[in-house]
Amino acid sequence: xxxxxxxxxxxxPVPDSADRCEYCASYFKISRLDQLNMASEDALRFCIKDYQxxxxxxxxxGQAFLSLGLCFLRLGLHKEALENLQKAxxxxxxxxxxxxxxxxxxxxxxxxxxxxxxxxxxxxSYLEAGLKIDSDNAILLYLRSIIKEDYxxxxxxxxxxxxxxxxxxxxxxxxxxxxxxxxxxxIGLSRxxxxxxxxxxxxxxxxxKKRLRIQLYFLPPIxxxxxxxxxxxxxxxxxxxxxYHEPISSFLILxxxxxxxxxxxxxxxxxxxxxxxxxxxDLEMLKNKKAxxxxxxxxxxxxxxNAIAYGPVIEGKGRTSVIDRKDKxxxxxxxxxxxxxxxxxxxxxxxxxxxxxxxKSTKETTDEFFYNDIVSASTGIGFWEYRVNGxxxxxxxxxxxxxxxxxxxxxxxxxxxxxxxxxxxxAIALAGDTxxxxxxxxxxxxxx
Length: 448
What we know:
Elements: H1 41-57, H2 62-74, H3 78-91, H4 96-106, H5 117-133, H6 138-152, H7 163-172, H8 177-186, H9 197-217, H10 221-243, H11 249-268, H12 272-295, E1 307-313, E2 321-323, E3 330-332, E4 334-342, E5 346-355, E6 360-370, E7 374-388, E8 391-405, E9 410-416, H13 426-447
Antiparallel strand pairs: 1-4, 2-3, 4-5, 5-6, 7-8, 8-9
Helix pairs in contact: 1-2, 2-3, 3-4, 4-5, 5-6, 6-7, 10-11
């Protein structure tokens, strides 16, 4: 049994066979990471020194290696933690939680999708070993579900069994909210970056209702004229049949059906306030979640908030825009999106064409530029070609967001012209904010 001579928190003497300090109540025989929650960095370093001293006299102490590994893990020294935890595993292989800590240490404090496949496979082998000892261990099952969700899905790989399978099993065997939060924190994730199956199902349900409302908003006026025509046709048929004492059942059914469908769809259709709120929600999702996922970066590595610029897409099939009856402003079904993420040394960009009616992104691309390689970021008047109703229009007075690099490449998004009316000033304002954010970063980096 591991014996500690002094408490790592208050350095008070520790009686033999005691687990906690009788003065400050802190743990000194460390077998779980939560026992170090209250320990200061100085106390942890004292503890490490103490355990290293114990190992000099007893190099076969698996408990000392475990405690030492957990102290290193608590300090964020993942390489040292992994080394000591693996030694502990060789000496005390029957502890399922030990395989959980080894897996966490092997992720090096990063979310799973940032790891290499060979490392993920190795981590999965650790988790499988732990589950062979205790197949119902909730935190092992939960970490397995996170790896399936965050690595396999992000890289388009097959995940069988699915993340949901492991998550449901973990919940069944007592997974707590605290265990979930602690695990996510250890591997550089948060609740807003990874969803549970219940949260995903609820989000998809809400999104489905939201997309229906948006799709109805973009329905052409002819649809509503036809619906009203059917109602009047049914009413006219009923009046005529009553006049000539004919049965009215078929016209009555037609009228009731037409009225029911029209009223239902009219009530489900998004109004002006809703459509603007939904649009803002989607922009935030693209800026803070979709871009991060596609770029495959840890948000903690970014030095400032992401910036976004967008412009309407007027090409393609179907109705591309709506002039709202209430405020007379134009709202577009598809938008071209540019997101800038600011790393320490590089500007990372994500681009896509986002369909507001379906919530799906196409033509997705990602790029990385060293700050020194960026020549300029601006909004200004320039030339652009459009295809409107099958006709190519050359326009010399288009307001454009543009990022130019020293290699001669550029990223350009048309924001507004006489053919493209902006939805208020939001597109212009966001493009201006993005330009300012990029310029600010360029000044900071070049000044250093």
